[in-house]
Prior knowledge:
Blueprint (H helix, E strand, L loop, with lengths): L1 H5 L6 H30 L5 H29 L14
Helix pairs in contact: 2-3
Amino acid sequence: MFLLVTLTRRAWIIPVGIMAAMAMGAAMGANDIANAFGTSVGAGVLTVRQACLIASIFDVIGALTLGTRVSKTIASKIIKVDIYEDEPGE
Length: 90
């Protein structure tokens, strides 16, 4: 509570945004993992605990190794922003 009081009026957006991004990442990751490990758990090859452990290890490794490359692609190669006008409608 003290931390929120000491922040400026708009600085609360950063920690709230980080928490929201983490929650959405966990929700999307859980959906992807359910699709990937559903057959292994259903067949009895892995327990739910083992599947969660394996998934979390490889999710972290993937985020650490490929995260910057994905960010660079999103920032520069998806859309050419220079084709848009700075002042549309003039």
